[in-house]
Amino acid sequence: MMCPLCQTEDAIKLFYTDKDREYFQCQTCKLVFVPSAHYLSTEEEKARYDTHQNSYEDPKYRAFLSRLFIPMQNRLAPGSRGLDFGSGPGPTLSVMFEEVGHSMALYDHFYAPNPAVLDAPYDFITATEVVEHLHYPRIELDRLWTILTPGGILGIMTQLVPEHDTFAQWYYKRDPTHVCFFSRKTFEWLATQWHAVLICEENDVMLLEKQSDQIR
């Protein structure tokens, strides 16, 4: 078995088992993940996302996204170019950034499947409640990091995996589309790999800043 993030093969241990799925943890990057045998089909996965009722007109949803929006906005130059990766059926974060003068592109595997936007450079990239769904996190995150301009910021929002003794009651793992679970140590591993500056804004909001001397 290979870790889907760091691709280590000899450091995987069983982390937890319930009646529906097994969860393994990589001892190198500390990612907790579900084997591909437990993945939903493409049709099942999209059907679940189709039930989401998020809207840019919903003040509660805006408040939720503001936990990432505010710290990122405070670090952006006026008129920055951004990408909302995994924008979902009701793009909202992109609207919030456009309202303050930034330009935004959208990419979503199901709702905005435009691969051309993944070839352009961006000053900032957001991925809110996305990374836990990724089947190939190493490939997809490395691609985002590549198109981020030097000095740019990748903002990620995801619930961090709890300690083993509380994992059984953790609501986040019950969503069958959630297959990768990150910890603070996982983000620290990513930052080391990318030579990035890691900024932990809240327990579920991580900003990774690309050093200005890094090339794309």
Architecture (CATH level 2) name of the largest domain: 3-Layer(aba) Sandwich
Sheet of most strands: 6 strands, mixed
| Mean residue pLDDT | 95
Superfamily (CATH H level) name of the largest domain: Vaccinia Virus protein VP39
Helix content: 25-40%
Note the total helix count: 6
Number of strands: 10
Provide a brief overview of the structure.
The protein is of the alpha/beta class.
Give the SSE layout.
Layout: E1 12-17, E2 22-26, E3 32-33, H1 42-49, H2 59-73, E4 81-85, H3 93-99, E5 103-107, E6 122-128, H4 137-147, E7 148-157, H5 164-167, E8 180-181, H6 184-194, E9 197-202, E10 205-209
Parallel strand pairs: 4-5, 4-6, 6-7
Antiparallel strand pairs: 1-2, 2-3, 3-8, 7-10, 9-10
Walk me through this protein's architecture.
26% of the residues lie in helices and 25% in strands. It has 216 residues and is an alpha/beta fold. It folds into 2 domains: 1-39, no CATH class; 40-176 and 198-209, 3-Layer(aba) Sandwich (Rossmann fold), CATH 3.40.50.150. The strands form 2 sheets. It has a 6-stranded mixed β-sheet with strand order 5-4-6-7-10-9, with helices on both faces. Strands 1-2-3-8 form a 4-stranded antiparallel β-sheet, with no helix packed on it. The mean pLDDT is 95.
